[in-house]
Amino acid sequence: MLRGRFSRPALRLALAGAFSAGIACQAPSAHAWGNDGHRIINRLAVSALPADAPAFLRSQAAVNEIEYLGPEPDRWRSPAEPELSAAQAPEHFIDFELADKLGPLPHKRFDFLAEVYAAGERPETIGLQPWQTDEVWERLKSAMRDYRELKAAGKDTQPVEQAIVFYAGWLGHYVGDGSQPLHTTVQYNGWTGPNPHGYTTSHRIHYEFETEFVSANIHAADVEADMAPPKAIPGDMFDAYVAYLRRTATHVEEVYQLDKEGGFEGAGTAASRAFTAARLAAGASMLRDMIYAAWLDSAQPVPDRYAGK
Ligand SMILES: [Zn+2]
Ligand SMILES: [Zn+2]
Known about the structure:
mainly alpha; P1 Nuclease; 58% helix; binds zinc ion
């Protein structure tokens, strides 16, 4: 996902041009990791779930559906649905440089929004990535808890299985975005401010890296080979997810260095291919671990909402 690359009238013009030329409509704005990267992340993550995750989630039909859903939130960026497009655009990124100026990140979306507005800022500029991801993960966990209850009661679980597959696929989009360094920074599409290393200032780097380069050069097998072994996510999920995003953010300058060496032109370099596969693998590994954590945590008893009252 790329912010503000095309104003809406410009996008409309571009689309009208594409239609009138009678060619297939390719939306000109970039989407995080493009279609191919998001599909790879979702498919690999769900295919690598530990064997004690529910079997329906590892079925071929579920894997195919979850792969299809990888790019789903990017399909919501169409000018045909302007309100949805505007409301969900900030959920694909967070500019830590701006968010951290407001203090420690609160866990709840509306607490953060209150801080943003109080500072005279707008969430569209700073991004809402961690809140959206954590909330979708909690939806997944809630559905898994319902699945356990229905199964224990001997009832039909097929309807809730469909909900779980959807939530897992939807979640995958944001976790995938979260492994793309340019989704964590004000330097999201061309270097801004002091530039002692002479990094590119062109507004092409984001799309070239996450979409064109991935589609032309990165294969699922390269990404799979780089995935970490499954691991438990202890403690609070919001905190664990923010820590993951901050690890991603440590790679921002590397993207610009690789670009400077021609890393995202054509077939790139061995270093740029390895870097990109490793980033996609970090996304797939985290998604696998988050889905599995939702499954384990869904067995926990629900806290009594009236406790201590
Ligand atoms: Zn992007
Ligand atoms: Zn996105």
